[in-house]
Amino acid sequence: MTEQTPSVPSTIPSTRVEQTDTPELWASLQRPLPDWYAGARFGIFIHWGAYSVPAWAEPSGALGLVPEDVWFAHNAYAEWYFNTIRIAGSPAQQRHQELYGGAPYDDFLDAWSAADFDPADWARLFASAGAEYVIPTTKHHDGIALWDAPGTGARNTVHRGPKRDLIADIADAVRAEGLRFGVYYSGGLDWSTSVFPPHTKFDEVSGLRPRDAAYNLYALRHVQDLVHRYSPSVLWNDIEWPDAGKRGGPDSLHALFEEYYAAVPDGVVNDRWGDTHHDFATSEYEYHLDSEDSGAWENTRGIGFSFGYNQAEDESQSLDANGIAKHLTDVVSRGGRLLLDVGPTAEGTIPGVQRRALEGLARWMGEAAPVLRSSSPAPAGLVQPSQTGWVRWLATPGHLVAAVDGGTGVDLGVGADAVDVDGLRVLNGSAELRQDGGRLTAEVTPTTDGPALLVLPTR
């Protein structure tokens, strides 16, 4: 690939505030977490791009559980196809040569049709599954924009491939269903704007990236454009932000955050902008779990091992409705929220494995969603880990709620004197309670794909 210099128009004005790069400067951006996000429990991520055409990665395992010396050459993320095919000897490179003759990656942009894309159908599916916000990728690491982004010329979906503003279509559809809309943007990596060798180690992801003023301006204009076109409730950046933008001045990241909060007062930003500012932290599969230790946080993962659609995955590598419901409950029981990803096909359909999982989740969320949204983690010390089954505890006003995966003689991990057993109400299942040495056990039978919820008044 030849090196390209970003072309950045000046049609969108910057916020003209002089700044310096100091901790006090970033501290000036701190604000209370907006009520909508503080109360949110479940969002949908969408990874859709030119990588959805080859739609292939080795389903090697979940991020954080695969050794680093294995991960990159055998990357389970289909959206990293552009990087993986450049790693000498990788199975993806070999397959790319065999199937496509080593064709340039951008050929996939032209082959991306989105012919069957029905944004209203997507939005109905997400809403029925209990999602409260939806975040599509607007530009992933391959640098291809899903809207007519400034400075991208024809390298976007308006001029090539689908030939439409996919971001506007998704935004309009999810808002019509009453959901919040956010945007993902890869500010840390853009493999089209500069020449770096492929990433083969985790420290290279943050090390081999564009840091210069030209790329900062390029990325800044993109995010400004997203803010003013779509008024997103979430700015979800990935990897990092160019270092030149952290030095203060009118085209700095600080100025961008101020501009965003002025345009979207109840908007939130994630923590992947480097050591700068964030409203909430993120973990990914089993990676960066230390982000869950304090403050507002969100776990993100795909239904399978990949975010982008991976035709090599099947049910055995994917969460079903029960798996999603349990993971969501676990995250919420620890004070977080789940951003669950779907990876549409190049034609624009939600793959069957993913659709079936969300449709099954919808049946469970019919009764579970109000509980999850009104809940907080159970008070420390009041409940203990179960010794005999899968149990997660939530607290709602005046109640403790045990999410139980089912079974006989399940230790609930709570004393009988802490709750009013006679006031038991069961959602998505049936249950009988017994006392065993002062602790409660239960026989639980879920009636949907997901744990039964045992709602118990507190004493």
From TrEMBL:
Its EC number(s): 3.2.1.51
Signal peptide positions on this chain: none
Alphabetically ordered keywords of this record: Glycosidase, Hydrolase, Signal
InterPro entries, alphabetized: FUC_metazoa-typ, GH, Glyco_hydro_29, Glyco_hydro_29_N
GO MF annotation list: alpha-L-fucosidase activity
Biological-process GO terms, alphabetical: fucose metabolic process; glycoside catabolic process
Domain (Glycoside hydrolase family 29 N-terminal): residue spans on this chain: 22-366
GO cellular component, one term: lysosome
Top-level taxon of the source organism: Bacteria
Ranges for region Disordered: 1-21
Family recorded in the similarity comment: Belongs to the glycosyl hydrolase 29 family.
Role, per record: Alpha-L-fucosidase is responsible for hydrolyzing the alpha-1,6-linked fucose joined to the reducing-end N-acetylglucosamine of the carbohydrate moieties of glycoproteins.
Name of the protein described by the UniProt record: alpha-L-fucosidase
